[in-house]
């Protein structure tokens, strides 16, 4: 373990953020570069010898958190990186983007602020890149087997890297023009600069993984041709069918899905546009949806110079502290969260529902009409007399996703069965009803966290490897039926 008295001697300290007035003028990550390293050894020392490390259960990857906390405390960065990569292909992604269910399950968190596991993780991997401890792992021999991976989000990339390292020849098909899936175009630059993706892709290319961008399976390439060409297929196409809002006025100009709005802002940072085709500049912006994607829209609107930003959430405002009866430790609690985007301004309105939109004579949205809602007999119902309207010249819908894309032909062409929730069904080996075709990530699990996506990719790679060779030494951290710790 680390310092036996670390949790007694040191309080919780997190990464330092750049001043709001500075960071909203650029798209760089919000944290002060290098601010973690001077404090991270003390923070890692707060990890206790707790006997049963529940952080292992909080994280589906099974990260060896106490071990790399100990190495970080001793500043043995090489050993810490080795332990970190033993269970996680991309800790620079999770260390920036994961909401850290491991911290919610930290034993210290029972009566103190938990260990800053996420900050320790990102410090280790950033130091590993700096010192050259992250190098390509080229397989000693090739198996002669070929695998196609559909989708280059975290699940697809994890599956591809694992299968490449097992000696298979892997090609990743991505329908966008660049590799990364939602990591590339759904996550704003201020949350994760895309250089982190780029250097990991270069590592994978050096290991032998091939990438085919701008190719949509189902439209540009048929499933049948893919099955003929490859010995196995891993579908990691994500859950990309966005939930819509079918209310009067939805057809007005200026109302967009979040995943129509956010990618254009990222494309500006990639140099594809001078200015985004959809911009919040000078507009009253309303974001419908209170989750992380909604917060990403809020932060993006701030940087584009919105006149005002309002975020709406249909559920009541959650509490700021864990309810020990409703959400006991070590489950992941639903708490009121202030992200970096919320620190930058705007208004958050809870327990409201949109009734309709109102536009001008040119068909552009100008107002959003809403009403407050309350639970009656277990159902959300409008509260009479609470109707009002707010200015809305740009509206983004960030209400989640309902399943994988079924319009591009991928599901039908493969002949895949779906489960009751509209996700691609799979067996215990992550194999679909079609032999040799596997599914990983949100396409099979439904909308979930990045750590679950990577865990799914690693587990699906194990199933595919066993299908190809009869046995597999690749790790399989989760089963398809596993779920997060919850009440």
UniProtKB/TrEMBL annotation:
Pfam families: Fer4_20, Pyr_redox_2. The keyword Oxidoreductase applies. Pathway: Amino-acid biosynthesis. SUPFAM superfamilies: alpha-helical ferredoxin (SSF46548), Nucleotide-binding domain (SSF51971). It comes from the Bacteria. The keyword rRNA-binding does not apply. PROSITE patterns: 4FE4S_FER_2. NCBIfam families: GOGAT_sm_gam. This is Glutamate synthase subunit beta. It comes from Streptomyces olivaceus.
């Amino acid at each position: 373990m680390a310092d036996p008295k670390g949790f007694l001697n040191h309080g919780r300290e997190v990464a330092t953020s750049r001043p709001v007035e500075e960071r909203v003028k650029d798209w760089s990550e919000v944290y002060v570069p290098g601010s973690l390293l001077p404090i991270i050894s003390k923070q890692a020392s707060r990890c206790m010898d707790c006997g049963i490390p529940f952080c292992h259960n909080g994280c589906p990857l099974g990260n060896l958190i106490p071990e790399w906390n100990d190495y970080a405390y001793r500043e043995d960065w090489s050993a810490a990186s080795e332990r970190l990569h033993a269970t996680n292909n991309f800790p620079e992604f999770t260390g920036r983007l994961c909401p850290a269910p491991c911290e919610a399950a930290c034993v210290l968190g029972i009566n103190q602020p938990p260990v800053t596991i996420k900050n320790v993780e990102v410090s280790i991997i950033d130091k590993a890149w700096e010192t050259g401890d992250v190098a390509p792992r080229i397989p000693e021999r090739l198996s002669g087997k070929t695998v196609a991976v559909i989708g280059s989000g975290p699940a697809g990339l994890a599956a591809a890297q694992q299968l490449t390292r097992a000696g298979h020849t892997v090609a990743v098909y991505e329908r966008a023009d660049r590799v990364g899936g939602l990591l590339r175009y759904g996550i704003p630059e201020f949350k994760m600069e895309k250089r982190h993706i780029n250097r990991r892709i270069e590592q994978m290319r050096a290991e032998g993984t091939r990438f085919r961008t701008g190719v949509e399976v189902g439209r540009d390439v048929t499933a049948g041709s893919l099955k003929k060409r490859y010995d196995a297929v891993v579908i990691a196409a994500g859950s990309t069918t966005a939930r819509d809002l079918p209310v009067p006025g939805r057809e007005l100009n200026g109302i967009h899905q979040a995943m129509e709005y956010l990618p254009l802002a990222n494309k500006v940072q990639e140099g594809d546009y001078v200015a985004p085709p959809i911009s919040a500049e000078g507009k009253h912006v309303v974001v419908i949806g209170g989750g992380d994607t909604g917060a990403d829209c809020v932060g993006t609107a701030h940087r584009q110079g919105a006149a005002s930003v309002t975020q709406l959430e249909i559920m009541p405002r959650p509490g700021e502290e864990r309810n020990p009866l409703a959400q006991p430790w070590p489950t992941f609690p639903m708490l009121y969260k202030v992200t970096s985007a919320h620190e930058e301004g705007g208004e958050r309105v809870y327990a409201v529902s949109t009734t309709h939109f109102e536009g001008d004579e040119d068909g552009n949205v100008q107002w959003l009409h809403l009403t407050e809602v309350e639970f009656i007999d277990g159902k959300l119902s409008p509260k009479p007399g609470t109707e009002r309207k707010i200015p809305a010249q740009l509206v983004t819908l960030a209400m989640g996703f309902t399943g994988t894309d079924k319009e591009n032909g991928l599901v039908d062409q493969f002949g895949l069965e779906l489960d009751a929730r509209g996700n691609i069904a799979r067996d215990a080996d992550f194999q679909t009803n079609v032999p040799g075709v596997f599914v990983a990530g949100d396409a099979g699990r439904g909308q979930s966290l990045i750590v679950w996506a990577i865990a799914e990719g690693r587990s699906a790679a194990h199933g595919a490897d066993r299908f190809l060779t009869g046995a597999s030494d690749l790790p399989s951290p989760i089963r398809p039926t596993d779920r997060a710790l919850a009440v």
